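// run 5 | inverse folding | seed 20
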């Protein structure tokens, strides 16, 4: 019998996370003073309060709110947006619980409100807001004539409301520790580049990522839910992604949020049709015990091995995917295997699928993508074509009736930084993600086994970060 004094409470195996996809109440008319700006921001913060109370009642440990969720993203004039910003101190230099000391710093209403949300609901809170800091115009060459820097900023508070971390969207390496993991902070397009995410994961011991974003739904492989999951799986981290909700925007539809692990999606939402309200997602996340070897740069041996030459086929046609020219072959019959190459980079697909009238193609891209920022990529993609015309292969598709009983995709990637992604369809013409256990990514490539719903696309996105700027010195 073990004496009571020697009994130790077992460490929890999971923590409870929440992300909130927020339908922003945009300020109108734009504020002409600080008081007006605070009143407008309170309309969104009160919704944050309601959602945090729901999450707190369900025992949530950490909650993430989206980028631009407090005042929207439409204000482009720095002389207008200044009213919505606050001087955010450095938490490494200041020990501060804003909820307890609301008058310690001037112009801190948003910080106080967020701190009180964390304290009242006994959870970690991560939110996005605007930081404004003085600089010396005429002395500092980067300082604007008005004498201020303006930053897109993440802030984090612990269960007591203490301000514990801030991150400027400037590729800094900022993280905070909790009793259930080390959380790295990123904002939106940060996810596309090496800094800060990969540096945090590889060299700073980060196990989990918090990701406020205002992400446009860009198909076929830059949907918010698809890319978030591919990052979590490809880099073996837990990933809490909160997007703003504006699917009715005619230019770019912003939506898609989720809670992801190295095994796949625990909870997510992809809803381009509901015009009102937000989405609160809650999930129990396994505590991440990841141990990843440090990789000093993205130049290394060929990943997944050399191409299978006996399966080599000449490309049958070209088509554009996100404005890049891909080489494609059609995926015919109910089973087969094929290798296709572009500029020395080769992709191999082995598959078994149902017999349907859907048209599928297998494609390859190797080069510098420029439409959404310079990104040097090696990509293998299995995609459903939008119509029966080959030129539609690579255009966004929302419907599929074809289930793949199995597939395996590999490539002779010359980078270890690869994002594996699978997108499936459902009956409501909403994109979905495969169930955990229905796919696997590892040394054998990306494999799908009895994927639970009809397939829209499967992609391996390899990133050569050091080649993004080919005209830079040393690029």
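// decoded
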């Amino acid at each position: 019998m073990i004496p009571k004094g020697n009994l130790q409470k077992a460490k929890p195996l999971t923590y409870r996370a929440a992300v909130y996809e927020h339908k922003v109440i945009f300020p109108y008319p734009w504020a002409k003073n600080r008081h007006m700006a605070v009143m407008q921001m309170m309309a969104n913060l009160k919704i944050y309060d309601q959602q945090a109370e729901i999450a707190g009642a369900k025992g949530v440990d950490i909650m993430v709110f989206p980028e631009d969720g407090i005042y929207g993203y439409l204000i482009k004039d720095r002389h207008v947006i200044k009213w919505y910003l606050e001087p955010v101190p450095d938490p490494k230099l200041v020990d501060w619980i804003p909820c307890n000391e609301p008058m310690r710093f001037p112009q801190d209403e948003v910080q106080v409100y967020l701190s009180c949300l964390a304290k009242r609901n006994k959870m970690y809170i991560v939110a996005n807001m605007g930081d404004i800091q003085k600089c010396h115009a005429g002395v500092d060459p980067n300082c604007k004539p008005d004498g201020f820097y303006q930053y897109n900023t993440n802030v984090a508070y612990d269960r007591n409301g203490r301000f514990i971390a801030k991150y400027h969207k400037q590729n800094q390496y900022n993280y905070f520790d909790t009793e259930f993991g080390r959380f790295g902070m990123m904002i939106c397009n940060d996810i596309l580049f090496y800094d800060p995410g990969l540096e945090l994961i590889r060299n700073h011991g980060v196990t989990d990522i918090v990701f406020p974003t205002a992400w446009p739904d860009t198909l076929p492989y830059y949907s918010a839910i698809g890319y978030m999951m591919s990052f979590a799986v490809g880099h073996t981290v837990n990933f809490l992604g909160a997007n703003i909700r504006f699917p009715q925007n005619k230019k770019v539809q912003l939506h898609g949020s989720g809670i992801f692990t190295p095994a796949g999606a625990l909870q997510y939402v992809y809803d381009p049709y509901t015009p009102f309200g937000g989405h609160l997602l809650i999930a129990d996340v396994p505590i991440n015990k990841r141990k990843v070897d440090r990789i000093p740069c993205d130049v290394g041996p060929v990943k997944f091995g050399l191409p299978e030459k006996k399966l080599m086929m000449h490309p049958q046609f070209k088509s554009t995917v996100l404005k890049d020219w891909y080489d494609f072959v059609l995926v015919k019959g109910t089973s087969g295997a094929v290798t296709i190459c572009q500029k020395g980079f080769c992709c191999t697909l082995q598959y078994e699928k149902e017999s349907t009238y859907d048209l599928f193609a297998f494609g390859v891209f190797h080069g510098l993508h420029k439409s959404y920022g310079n990104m040097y990529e090696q990509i293998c993609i299995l995609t459903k074509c939008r119509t029966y015309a080959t030129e539609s292969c690579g255009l966004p598709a929302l419907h599929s009736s074809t289930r793949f009983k199995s597939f395996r995709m590999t490539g002779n990637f010359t980078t270890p930084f690869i994002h594996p992604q699978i997108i499936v369809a459902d009956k409501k013409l909403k994109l979905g993600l495969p169930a955990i256990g229905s796919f696997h990514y590892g040394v054998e490539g990306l494999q799908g086994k009895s994927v639970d719903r009809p397939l829209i696309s499967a992609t391996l996105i390899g990133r050569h970060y050091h080649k993004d700027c080919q005209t830079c010195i040393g690029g």
